[in-house]
Amino acid sequence: MRAFDYHRPASVKDAVALGEKKSDGRYLAGGQSLVQAMKLRLSSPSDLIDLNALQDLKTLRAEGGAVTVGAMVRHAEVASSSSIQKTLPALASLAGQIGDRQVRHLGTVGGSLANNDPAADYPAAALGLGATITTNKRKIEADKFFTGLYETALQPGELITSVSFPVPKRAAYVKFKNPASRFAIVGVFVAQTATGARVAVTGAGAGGVFRVKAMEDALAKSWSPQAVRGILVPAGDLQSDLHASADYRSQLVLVMAQRAIANAA
Description:
This protein has helices spanning about 10-20, 35-40, 75-80, 80-85, 90-95, 100-105, 110-115, 120-130, 140-145, 215-220, 245-265; strands at about 5, 25-30, 45-50, 60-65, 65-70, 130-135, 140, 145-150, 150, 160-165, 170-175, 185-195, 195-200, 210. By secondary structure, the chain is α+β, with helices and mostly antiparallel strands. Helices cover about 35% and strands about 25% of the residues. It folds into 2 domains: about 5-165, 2-Layer Sandwich (Uridine Diphospho-n-acetylenolpyruvylglucosamine Reductase, domain 3); about 170-265, Enolase-like, domain 1 (2-Layer Sandwich). The mean pLDDT is about 95. The protein has a 5-stranded antiparallel β-sheet.
């Protein structure tokens, strides 16, 4: 790990000011990905801007047909929230499947979305539900937020403040997880929303999280596991690694999607 300067701002305004001033600085949320990358010298920020004192980023509420989660809300808080369990149980279930207890009690929603790990769970929820990511500057639709592997629409110094997840008619998330890290080898989030069916896949895409339009079109006609039978994502669009080949992931996407559809029904 290389040397860096540490800052603990007392307000969102101060944090953003530091973020815009320190061009090589990074916001520190739960640190579950960033600190590990720093230890391996894969990331060497000049400054760490600690967000943990910012109470404005820790809101959690379910109202007006949506669940709004502050950027600094921990995964464990989402998983254990009675209001989320009642209003959007698929989101609470997803949060409860992330990592282990340490990761769930330290990792944050905003940190996960900003990092956009290709095997992370929250990007699938955001894309699957058509969430809106609010920053200090603007509101970004999930369909426009994820732009590639570890890449997002966030500009330098821009800070996620909250995420709004619309409450769907039904939804579920199922993943085939790595037994060690519990990252998704393939994870599928399905939702029947006010604007139609949405199917989001994490862990499989060569370019990160993505939607499967063919499955969405099939589910619009009939919400059942049988509706998507035979719909495979081409292996050429998927990644291969030591955990699974692209061909295997192609089959897993279908299996996980069918299970999620059945659970949501």
